[in-house]
């Protein structure tokens, strides 16, 4: 029995990612991932970071959520969307997703060389509490969680909704771990005070 790579590719990258109008959402997130990975080379030198094994507490739900977010599981199981929004609904979802992505990019650009894909203490690290960081403590997570939840619901598959929820939980867990780490590294007086002043992920809520 020969190996059919085209069939495997059609399962791994098909369904909502290649069917209009939901294809529009796939293109938006593909553009985001490409730009995000491309910008990963712009960051300062790391002084200290959370160990890889400990980081699995947030990496695992994000990984599983990411797999569910693709059309792979739904294609294999033959699951259909719970609802279909149509062109207008998907267009609105696309605008909202782009707004979330833009907020995340604002956070990343404002953070500058202190940004990292992992939980780290950069050289000359300090508390950033201006721009989007004056609205929420983790604007990157806020933007991405919002955009992914909107996209997951717009697609309407159980897998995309569950994937979005798992990714959101993973980012929330990463944010909590990051705050414990930075409170120790930057000092409770500096980072702890910031946490008591600015909401974590949801804007205009009480800081916790």
From TrEMBL:
UniProt keyword annotation of Ribonucleoprotein present: no
Molecular function terms from GO: protein C-terminal S-isoprenylcysteine carboxyl O-methyltransferase activity
Protein name per UniProt: Protein-S-isoprenylcysteine methyltransferase
Subcellular location: Membrane
Transmembrane annotation, as ranges: 20-39, 85-106, 144-172
GO BP: any one term: methylation
Gene Ontology cellular component list: membrane
Pfam families from the UniProt entry: ICMT (PF04140)
InterPro entries: ICMT_MeTrfase
Entry membrane topology: Multi-pass membrane protein
Keywords assigned: Membrane, Methyltransferase, Transferase, Transmembrane, Transmembrane helix
